[in-house]
Amino acid sequence: MNRLFRTKSIALAAISACSLFVLADVVSAQQPGTGQPGGRGQRGQGQRAQRGGGGMFGGGGRAMFDPSVSSDDMDKYGQMLKLSKAQQTAVKALHESFVQDYTAAAEKVRDEMDAIREDAREDPSRFQEMGEVMQKFRAKRADMEKAFFADVKTTLTPEQAGQWPAIERLRRRETSMGRGMMSGERVDLIKIVDGLRLTPEQHTAVEPVLEQYSIDLDRELIARNEFQDKMQGGLRDLFGQDADPAKAEKLITDGRAVANKLREVNKRYARQVENTLPDDASKAKFQQEVRRESFPQIYRGSRTMRQIDDALAIKDLTAEQKTAIEGIKTTLERDVAGVNQRMETAYEQREQTITAADILGRFGQGGQGGGRGGRGGFGMVDSEELTTLRDQRDTMEKAAVDKVTALLTEEQKAELPRGGRGGRGGDAGGDNIAPRRGGRPGGANPPAAPSGRT
Fold first, then answer.
1. Do the Cβ atoms of 425 and 439 come closer than 8 Å?
2. Do 255 and 18 form a contact (C-beta atoms < 8 A)?
3. Could you tell me if 71 and 95 are in contact, meaning their C-beta atoms sit under 8 angstroms apart?
4. How many CB atoms within 10 Å of residue 279?
5. pLDDT over 80 (residue 161)
6. Which phi and psi angles does 70 have, rounded to 5°?
7. 382-397 tens-digit pLDDT
8. Separation between Cα atoms, residue 444 and residue 441, nearest integer Å
9. H/E stretch holding 91
């Protein structure tokens, strides 16, 4: 039993630090109590839960069993290509045929996976076959998608065919950026700029930079994906009797190298894009969103800030109370911003030094992790510096909430929402304004990201 757990942990370590997100479904399929692979519920097209996965155009994990090219996708591509009504009709027929074939193939794999899962009740070693089945399905799916898009291209005019590489780059970003797990590896600058809602004139100034970015990013994205696909088959060896921790370490090192190249493209172009934005407000918002996308484990929505905002929303606050609470909020935002910036540096340093042994240590105590480790992204284990910084931030937020609480009367406290307003780690009872230390993924949650160079 210990041997089996160790080999699975080695594989998970390799997946975690190498950013092999596409293999997460293989690991989760081998865990008891996770339900059937991919689920049996039918989801509408365009509603896939996640879109980072294997193959050039694929979705991963549970979404793998949904048709990987949705009708919404094809509508969007049709608009970009300005398809005629006759072309739209032809493409729709091709897509319906693709969906039918894909659904039949996926159902067959589901049945096969169900049979393996049932047999594994008596023979746990059969779990290993799940990875083999999924790998074959990935290959089949890639072939189906390749054939489908080849058919679509036959309906295009020469001018439209010339636009097809841009469609391919878009689709690769949409379907495989999510594989990355290192900070900054999943950032899509084009999507962030779209969210700024620039005027057509303002966007014209950014377009040349974004066009070159899409080309340079795509080159590294292809290399990263090819590495992941190549290592996918070799991962099976890490589950066998001859599992080798050195192989996991090499996967970590090689995976980190390709991930670093991709995120360096994002860092370089983030500075260029920022310089082309029209005003300080758009630049600040762009910087903030890049930070949030680069370090989601640091810049999650802040429960503490929601609590302070709830206090500010109390109708019968006096002018003096409101001024005091606003001052507490401003001071907290400033102080936490400084800690968050130090956390960014510490997090990147940790990513560059983490080893298979570090991650295995997280699973060395019955899979529950040791100490405070594992509070970062997908297998990430906090360094001592990160732990210290998280504690500092927790202390700041608790002190701020205590100050706000002290300003309120008992009647005003009774007006606060009970159990929080959603979000992470909300308490079920007690004074909502007082945070609970512990039991919160990622530690205390900071306010909006500060401005500064990304």
1. yes
2. yes
3. yes
4. 8
5. yes
6. -95, 165
7. 788 999 999 999 999 9
8. 8
9. helix 85-119
Which residues make Cβ contacts (< 8 Å) with residue 154, sequence separation at least 6? Answer: none
| Cα R_g (the chain), whole angstroms | 24
Tokens 């009647």 sit at which residue? 411
Say how many C-beta atoms besides its own lie within 10 A of residue 6's C-beta.
15
Distance CA 80, CA 292 (A): 29
Calpha distance 369→360 (Å, rounded): 9
Three-point CA angle 228, 233, 237, nearest 5°:
120
CA gap 162, 82 in Å, rounded: 13
**pLDDT, tens only, 197-249:** 999 999 999 999 999 999 999 999 999 999 888 876 555 555 445 667 777 78
Task: Write down the residue that tokens 């898009």 correspond to.
Answer: 149
> CA 136 to CA 57: how far, in whole Å?
16
Tokens of 207: 């377009």
pLDDT of 310: 95
Model confidence pLDDT, tens digit, residues 164-196: 999 999 999 999 998 888 899 999 999 999 999
- Say if residues 19 and 381 touch (Cβ distance below 8 Å): no
Residue 31 in 3-state DSSP? Answer: coil
Residue type, 429: G
210 near 189, Cβ under 8 Å? yes
Long-range contacts of 393-396 (CB under 8 A, 24+ apart): 393/336, 393/339, 393/340, 393/343, 393/443, 393/444, 393/446, 394/437, 394/443, 394/444, 396/332, 396/335, 396/336, 396/339
Place of tokens 């950026």: 177
Contact 94, 151 (CB under 8 A): yes
C-alpha to C-alpha distances, 233 to 128, 209, 237, 373, nearest whole angstrom: 12, 37, 8, 29
